[in-house]
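FW: tagging you since you asked about this chain on Friday. Here's the raw sequence from the shared folder, copied in full. Didn't touch anything.
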Amino acid sequence: MNRVFAALQEIDGLRSLMDECSQDKDMIDMANNELGQAIDEERRLHASLLKSLLPKDDADERDCILEVRAG
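HL: got it, structure written out here
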């Protein structure tokens, strides 16, 4: 959970850096690149967090074969 908050703080920091350095093209390019990576990381962490909240089922680890017939 702390990693999600850290990623969100990094995203906010990068956005404010881009606002502050609006004249420096190199700084904006670097911050934009890092912002994309930070957003991807936040999405990955968010998905992992949601997956960990799902209830576990004993049948999830088992293999099965499902046959569907018309009729």
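FW: Residues 46 and 52 are 10 Å apart (CA to CA).
HL: agreed, and The chain has a mean pLDDT of 89.
FW: great, closing this out.
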